[in-house]
Amino acid sequence: MIRTARHGDLHLITLDRPGRRNAVDGPMAEALADAVGAAERDDAVRAIVLTGAGGAFCAGNDLKAMAAGDFPVPTVDGPPPMAVTRTPPAKPVIAAVEGYCFGGGFELALWADLRVASTTAEFGTLNLAQGLPCLDAATVRLPRLVGQGRALDILLTARRVPAEEAHACGLVDRLTGPGEALERALELAAAVARLPVEARNAARRSVLEQWSLPEDEAARNEARLALRP
């Protein structure tokens, strides 16, 4: 259900459950966490690309599996349904999105640093229309990407957001033709991987850590990260 492959210093993780539009059940969430953890521990890996098989990224959490009690009971301190989304990834992650990117799958794409999507992609928190809350940080990461107003538009309507709109509002970083998202994501990941690691990582961490800090402290944190021996 999770496939991995190496492309030089890039680590490709594929959600591979096309019969369910790559909807994630409990074992698949655990396998995803294992795959991400292995890539983060491997010093030869410079960037991670996350995609889905069969023309879809991820339709969200598997509702049948949830009804059967396949997921752990959600708690404030426990792991979220997608298992990896509670904290930012340790290495840059680029999501390559074709087709459905809904619910927990949308939250998984938001967890990535960058998103490359084809014109076939659709995004949204369709889970809210089923009375299922966001538990993988969509309500945190989406406003930081697109602003509070646009985020509330997407969240409170639980509508499908087409790729062109997602690109226009900053949710998608690169827009491609149908079937081209993975190729373009690997190209983008290769560009990220070519940068000197120390300076790149310091810049990335400064961006990720600034949100809870006043501007002057965020600037000092940037310097601390940049000058760390």
From TrEMBL:
Keywords: Lyase. Its EC number is 4.2.1.17. It is an enzyme of class 4 (lyase). The keyword Lyase applies. GO terms for molecular function: enoyl-CoA hydratase activity. InterPro entries: ClpP/crotonase-like_dom_sf, Enoyl-CoA_hyd/isom_CS, Enoyl-CoA_hydra/iso. Transmembrane segments: none annotated. Pfam families: ECH_1. Signal peptide: none annotated. Belongs to the enoyl-CoA hydratase/isomerase family. This is Enoyl-CoA hydratase. The lineage of its organism: Bacteria, Bacillati, Actinomycetota, Actinomycetes, Streptosporangiales.
